[in-house]
Predict the 3D structure of the following.
Amino acid sequence: MIQTDLSKIKDYARKNEKQNWKFRSYLKFIDQTDAEIDSLVVEISSAITGRINCKTCANCCKEKSPIVLKKEMLLISSRLEISKEEFINKYLENSEESDELRISKRPCPFLKNNECEIYDIRPEDCRSYPHLHKKGFRTRLIGVIENYPVCPIVFNTYNQLKEKCNFLA
Ligand code: SF4
């Protein structure tokens, strides 16, 4: 069964916190290559993504603060008919993890009626969220655990991965 109820997901995330970190350690030492793990994650998450409607969820737009690259700032500010500087002052802040800038407010100020107002020119960080198709899943497990209470695709993928990897909590 796929869980899509965001409040239940948050509850499970609280209950499963220790287990999630244990599984992270387990995955690091499991007898499978990075490529095998990556392809298993893509297989599981693709099946789940096909059964989830991001338009009715939009929870990443409410709870995450995506990075906006310089070239994206130009594109978005031009769409908004404001200068890049004005766009930065109004919508962005420094990121703690890198020297890049991220959207400063949550929910995202461009989310209107659960739809993205700048969808066709949305930042790459939004486009590729929840990043499960990227290589190196095992190197990004802290981010995966952070996204577990936020994104139903991550929540269900990580849980199914536990089963497929014979993880006994
Ligand atoms: S990517 Fe995840 S959090 Fe974002 S809308 Fe889709 S299911 Fe919801």
About this structure: The chain has two domains: 6-57+130-164, 65-127. The chain has a mean pLDDT of 96. Residues 52, 54, 57-60, 129-130, 150-153 surround iron/sulfur cluster (CB under 6 Å).
